[in-house]
Every structure is written in structure tokens, then in C-alpha cells.
Amino acid sequence: MADWIKMRSSLLTNPRVTRMARLLLQDAEFLAWMYSGRDVTRDESVTKRDIPVVTRIVVGGLLPVWSMANETAGRDGVVRHASSHEVDDAAGIPGFFRALTAVEWAEELDDQSGVRFINFEEHNSPQKERSLTGKSGAERTKEYRERKKREAEEAAQRDAERDGPGDVTVTSHRDDREEKSRGEKKNPSGSRASSKSPRKPAGSKRVPVDFSVTADMEAWASEDAPLIDWRRETEKFRDWEFKTPRTDWAATWRTWMRKAQESAVERGQSAGASGSIFAGAI
Question: What is the DSSP string of 215-252?
Fold first, then answer.
């Protein structure tokens, strides 16, 4: 059996969603609704042309169906006293339940006492259970920020240990004068050419043209910034001009993604979001 649906950007290209679109284009009830009763001859060219449109209709219907299941289904994924008609009405699409059944995302109980969303309970919990056991949006936001703060501090400590004392700013004026005096004795002319410290690479206020997101960075974004579209944010990142020059663009990219994730969390909290949509795997 298939796992229940996970709402994500790749849902439009999911084989089951595409198959639902093809099935609906062969469903007489759906065709009458889609084309307002016109007599439409279904040939391969017409079907191929309409697949992208109907696929988006399918994705649009999945959200209200998930909302219905999320609010009314039991731990077994069954919505009692519901039938295929209620599912079609929730989606707003005739024939929607038949397509769900064909791809093994739903089924009607044999005794006609309700409908079951297959494996829904593995990745979702009823809303009333989340309200009793789940954390509030403010608590989740606080924990997220504290965790990111710890990670940033640990990363800064690792960078300091890796770079060594040459990058540590000297705050004592006396030590600074002594260091300058020793440097003048070794190099009376005052020229900096004899300094043994390697010159740091020149920074830039714009992202270099050869900057690319690696597989490790993609994995990091999926884990640490799950609420954002990192590809879209990367395009914004490339177009941005920073106030100060940067050299470590991978670290700058991660900082950008963290801020985008925090903004997404705050937007979700202000909208009163109660949980992830379609939280599961296909």
C-alpha cells in the first residue's frame, strides 16, 4: 500500500498524481464537469495537452481532502460516515475519490461505514491529539532559535580553531605596540612586503559567478531549512549585494537560508498553523 501524500514542490511530477490526472481525463463525470457538458473527443493529443492542467487540479483537490481527514479521521485513518461523495465534495472535483482509490491512497470500507485514507496515521495525527500533546508555535520557535544559536556558536568556535591565532583580533594596546615595535626592528623600512602572514583573499559584495550549491549543502537545507524552497532563495541570494565584502560564500549561503527559515517559522506562527501539511513520505 502507498503511504499517504506529502505536500511538496515535486508533487506535481509524482507518478500517482499524474496517473490521477490521466484517470480523470477518462472519467465521464469529470469530463462533463471540466468541459461544461461539451462533447469532447479524447484522443492522445488532447489528453497530453490537458495533463498539466488537470495535474494542478488534482494537487489543488488534495489539500482540502487532507484537511478533512486531518480533522475527522481516527487513529486508523478512517473517516466514519463518509463516502466517496463526501470526498468528491471536499475536493470539489467529480470522480476524485475514484482516482484516489486507483492509486491506493484511499478506499471505501466494505460495510460502507466510512472511507479510509491508507497509511494516513503513520505520518499524521488527528488535530485534537496534537492540541493535547503538541508544543505551541511559540515553544517550537523558541527551541528552533536556541538550537540555531548553539549551532552558530559551535561553528564559530570550530572556525576559530581552524584559522588559528593569526585571525584573532588583538585588543590590548600594549601588546599591539610591542608587536608593531618588533615588526619595525625586523623590517626598519616599514614595508609590509616581508610579512610572513599570508594575505587573505579579497572579498566581494556579490556572489561569485562560479558559486554553486553542493549536494552536502542541499542535504543541509533539507534538514535545517525544511520550510523554504532553497532553489528560489538561492536565486535571491545571487542577486543580492551585501554591505560588506564576503569570502566564505558557503557560510554566507547557510546564514541566508537560516534567516529565510526563521521568517517562514514566524509566518507560520502568525497564521496559526497547526502542523505540517501532508507530513509523510510517498
Answer: HHHHHHHHHH-TTS-HHHHHHHHHH-EEEEEES-HHHH
